[in-house]
Specification:
Elements (H helix, E strand, L loop, with lengths): L3 E6 L2 H15 L2 H22 L4 H31 L6 E7 L2 E5 L4 E5 L5 E4 L3 E5 L5 E5 L7 H12 L10
Antiparallel strand pairs: 1-2, 2-3, 3-4, 5-6, 6-7
């Protein structure tokens, strides 16, 4: 594998992209939004048609409906707060990707992430997310690895298995 080196400074958009992927792809939040919305509308229609509105059940359905739609807003607020309070994230990082893994250097630290130690890998149109735990990931903008993305995908599948790479584009 040819060594790739690039500098990158995370932005709030990068963190939001990871959060959106976690909520909408892995977490299946959009599906739940649709299901809860349909259930709430059906409940309200049935209550009106049967003239039997249960205020407790209606309140519960309204709470669920509001919660599902407000959750993305809350998550964006939380990511903004996390981004502003984490000085490590806002530093410029130097990434080195090679046969042994990915090295991430900043002014305050150096980390070597071995290929076989990643928890999971995923990608979107613009990013490669390499999870080092369930909720923590390296965010790699694909614009820096475009020419090497196929090699990196193969290396990840070989190192952590196809099951943990099921969200990679084929």
């Amino acid at each position: 594998m040819e060594e790739i080196v690039f500098n990158y400074k995370y932005t709030l958009d990068d963190l939001n992209a990871l959060l959106n992927w976690q909520f909408y792809t892995k977490g299946r939040i959009r599906i739940s939004q649709i299901i809860v919305s349909v259930m709430a509308v059906l409940y309200l229609l049935m209550s009106i048609l049967l003239e039997d509105f249960d205020s407790l059940m209606g309140g519960i359905m309204l709470f669920c409906l509001l919660f599902v739609f407000i959750l993305p807003i809350i998550s964006k607020y939380a990511s903004r707060k996390q981004f502003k309070s984490n000085s490590y994230v806002t530093q410029e990082h130097i990434y080195t990707i090679n046969e042994s893994g990915i090295t991430q250097k900043s002014d305050s630290s150096t980390h070597l992430f071995l290929w076989d130690k990643f928890y999971m890998a995923s990608e979107t149109k613009d990013y490669l997310f390499l999870f080092i735990s369930y909720g923590q990931a390296l965010i790699i903008p694909k614009m820096y690895i475009t020419d090497h993305i196929t090699t990196i995908r193969k290396k990840l599948i070989e190192s952590i298995g196809a099951k943990k790479c099921k969200y990679l584009f084929k």
